[in-house]
Amino acid sequence: MKKAICILLIICMALGCTACGGGSYGIKIIQTLVEQDYSLAFRTGDPTATYVIAALETLAAEGKVTELSTKWFGEKAVNFKKTPGALEKTGMPEPRDFIIGVDINSFPMAYIANGEYWGFDVELAMAVCEKLGWNLKIQQIEKENVFIELSSGNIDCAWGGIALDENEVAKGKYLQYGPYIHNDIVIASRGGSFIWNKLMLSGKKMVMPSTPEALAALANDEKLSKRMGQITRLAGGSTECFDYLFSGRCDTILADSTAITYFNCH
To answer: 135 pLDDT band (50/70/90 cuts)?
Structure first.
């Protein structure tokens, strides 16, 4: 009987290590600080939105969105409406440059790798432009400046790890399309660590991105915000935080749940 139980435990451990997000080599969430959703934003009344939405809903119906979601997140985590033939009904637009504004600190939605923009949102935007016959251009923006960037004409669409300001959406400052994926800003540790909840964070080394959004998220927890001077802020964003965690230079990190899903599946 004991031998059978031991074999069963070994099998369970092996399965856990191969599962997406499982095993001691994965990353586990300790505490959720902020819940948010990512959306696209267009200038109100801009016909650009009509074509982009039609292309997205056509790609969703064709299975391209699910394909990319599985590639980046290991599952169907992204939700766009599926409308077969949506682009046929809209008609093809004239060739043009399509400029999207992305937050490069929102790995894996949008980031810079080897000097190039990349990420789930970037790859999906490429597929949309291929459908529409447009030339994709990418502009780095700050999340809090969506309205300014759109209204000034600097970008045609805010799309790349963007959680829109609910007050701006309610006031109709721009057109929202989505949300299409949920994201939490969380405190996380290595899967094999003995840190299981926020009560065990005291005295542990923690790193976080040096972004306004990360600082605002930390302010949601009074105890953590009081430890601000003990928390290392990294200019390299989420990817540098994960480097610190995997190399053992810290015990916990502040990160996006979408990034954790990506790392647990790759």
So the answer is: very high
Judge whether 60 and 177 are in contact, CB under 8 Å.
no
DSSP-derived letter for residue 143 is G
- What is the tally of helices (H) and strands (E) in the chain? 11, 10
Torsion angles phi and psi, residue 81, rounded to 5: -60, 135
Task: Name the β-bridge partners of 30.
Answer: none
Contact between 121 and 52 (Cβ < 8 Å)? no
Write the CA distances from 123 to 68, 114, 116, 148, 250, integer angstroms.
8, 16, 12, 25, 32
Say how far apart CA 22 and CA 245 lie, in whole Å. 17
Cα separation, 199 vs 165, in Å, equals 31
pTM of the model as a whole? 0.88
Angstrom distance (rounded) from CA 198 to CA 124: 36
* Strand ranges inside the chain, DSSP E: 27-42, 97-102, 111-113, 116-118, 135-140, 157-158, 175-190, 206-209, 232-234, 252-256
Query: Cα–Cα distance between 265 and 154 in angstroms, integer?
Result: 35
147-199 pLDDT, tens digit each: 999 999 999 999 999 999 999 999 999 999 999 999 999 999 998 888 888 88
- Amino acid identity of residue 43, one-letter, is R
What's at 169, amino acid-wise? Answer: V
3-state secondary structure of 177: strand
Are the CB atoms for 21 and 265 separated by under 8 Å? yes
Dihedral sign computed on CA atoms, order 192, 214, 32, 112: negative
Structure token pair of residue 116: 């190039």
